[in-house]
Amino acid sequence: MNNKTADKLATWAFWLTAGIILLVLALLVGYILYQGLPVLTPQFLFGRSESIRAGGGIGPQLFDSFYLLVLSLALTVPLGVGAAIYLSEYARPGRLLELIRTSTETLASLPSIVAGLFGLLVFVNLTGWGYSLVAGALVLTLLNLPVMVRVSEDALRAVPVSLREASLALGATKWQTIWHVLLPVALPGIVTGGIITAGRALGEAAALLYTAGQSIGALDFHNWDITSPRSPLNPFRPGETMAVHIWKVNTEGKIPDIRRVADGTAAALVLVVLLFNAAVRWLTRRLQRRLQGV
Predict the structure, then answer these.
(1) Which pLDDT score, from 0 to 100, does residue 95 have?
(2) How far apart (Å, rounded) are the C-alpha atoms in residues 107 and 115?
(3) Beta-carbon neighbour count of residue 166 at 10 Å?
């Protein structure tokens, strides 16, 4: 076999692999949307869930999913990007750097159920907070931080050295170079890390069962006092995301329309992830053009 034939075969193999992945993804998403889209009425999306009667919705679960996402990203992104800046720009090769990398890689392979039990011990019992959204956000941060650090570090290291040298040669300090040159250029890669962690935050269930809980309580959506137990904005109240709701309905549900609620919740979760990713990509492109003056 000559080189030209081998190159064609390799190209076809790569196209075939990509096609199989896209086909499986399209079938999976298509099946979920085919089963769930007819259920997605305003009453289902914004209505309260039911424990015994049929006809319940997912309004509180939808709110809790977004609120927990915001809480977890507010912790994960600054810590992850800060650690990536240290590792790529300030850390020197040595035992400390090896220890940090080993710890990060070990944390990345931690099963979510183990992280959930750790969160139950530390964030729920040791702190005395009980089942709460903030405990769920902390354990999600624990799970997502390695990915955020690794993706952000790779994005920062991919910035051409010539840009760093040009900035420093013009008299900018190292921090000014990082803030005004490196971060804007690395922004798409950093956003990719944020999208990956957001997807996990929206779809995670096992870790949240032991930290955020499986109940939503009697929420009053007219009460915006963050310290009130009935306020939806109180981070120290228990909460239930859509992923946890799917698990709960399918395992412990007593409602007669289990299949309808599960299909509708799954379709809503998929649409939320797709729309969130598209919106973040659009905002990132606009922000990057503005920062780079394009």
Answers:
(1) 86
(2) 9
(3) 13
Tell which residue, 271, 275, 253, has the closest CA to residue 262: 253
Q: Residue-wise over 45-82: b if at least 16 C-beta within 10 A, else e? A: eeeebbeeeeebbbbbbbbbbebbbebbbebbbeebbe
**Secondary structure of 170-218 in the HEC alphabet?**
CCCCHHHHHHHHHHHHHHHHHHHHHHHHHHHHHHCCHHHHCCCCCCCCC
SS3 269: helix
Residue whose tokens read 């000014």: 176
pLDDT for res 293: 61
Burial class for 101, CB neighbours closer than 10 Å (0-12, 13-18, 19+): middle
Contact call for residues 158 and 183 (beta carbons, < 8 A): no
User: Chain-centre distance of CA 188, in angstroms?
Assistant: 16
What does residue 35 show for φ and ψ, rounded to 5 degrees?
-80, -30
Q: What is the pTM for the complete model shown?
A: 0.86
Task: Tell which residue, 129, 143, 131, has the closest CA to residue 75.
Answer: 143
Positive or negative, the CA dihedral 162, 168, 174, 179 is negative
Q: For residue 288, give every residue at least 6 positions away whose Cβ sits within 8 Å of its Cβ, in sequence order, or none.
A: 184, 187, 188, 294
For residue 266, how many other CB atoms are within 10 A of its CB? 20
Q: What is the pLDDT of residues 115-173, one digit of tens each?
A: 999 999 999 999 999 999 999 999 999 999 999 999 999 999 999 999 888 999 998 99
Residue type, position 232, single letter: P
Distance of alpha carbon 32 from alpha carbon 22, whole angstroms:
15
